[in-house]
Design goal:
It is built from 9 helices and no strands. Helix 5 packs antiparallel against helix 6. It is mainly α. The protein is globular. The N and C termini lie far apart (about 40 Å). About 70% of the residues lie in helices and about 0% in strands.
């Protein structure tokens, strides 16, 4: 009985800690999240223009495998397959944001630039816009390697062109700090 009670107390403590980590959203952020989720649904449906039902099922299976695979080599293989087979898919854009992060710093920069160029209009199901999130990460990477002017260019783009883009946590992307790198693949 004591073990069960201890386990329940631990579970409550963990759940409370997790609940406290989620930031409180302002009314403006809540509205932006709702609008971005609508945009996400529209963009997700655009895959129907390019891919058959069977292909979209495979895209979904690959995306699910990507999210459930902790092994980096397997994730790289899935990302490369998505890029090769389904370059116009919304979900390929979503994978690219995180895929860039599991590469060397210069390869990460190259992949983030590719993401900005080719997948700017993609969205995660939670409303996080791929192009805005890729720019935020690109600013961080470019600053890390001393390319301050180039980083400033992407930061300007982010602030001017994506004022209502929200991140994985629902907060405005252009107001997030460098610690907001939640690699959560939200559907």
């Amino acid at each position: 009985m004591k073990r069960i009670l201890s386990a329940l107390l631990l579970l409550v403590a963990c759940c409370t800690a997790l609940a406290e980590e989620k930031p409180e959203l302002t009314p403006a952020e809540q509205k932006a999240v709702q609008e971005n989720r609508k945009k996400a649904q529209i963009r997700i449906r655009e895959d129907e223009k390019y891919y058959t039902d069977q292909e979209r099922r495979e895209i979904g299976e690959l995306y699910k495998a990507w999210n459930n695979t902790p092994k980096l080599n397997e994730r790289k293989t899935i990302a490369q397959k998505m890029l090769r087979r389904y370059p116009k898919s919304n979900w390929t854009g979503c994978i690219m944001v995180v895929y860039s992060n599991i590469n060397s710093k210069y390869e990460e920069i190259r992949l983030l630039k590719q993401t900005v160029r080719d997948y700017n209009d993609c969205f995660y199901g939670n409303g996080t816009q791929v192009g805005a999130e890729a720019r935020r990460r690109l600013v961080k990477c470019l600053n890390r390697v001393g390319k301050k002017e180039e980083a400033e260019k992407y930061l300007r783009e982010l602030k001017e062109s994506y004022p209502t883009a929200t991140g994985f946590n629902g907060k405005f992307i252009n107001e997030q700090d460098d610690d907001a790198d939640a690699d959560v693949d939200e559907n």
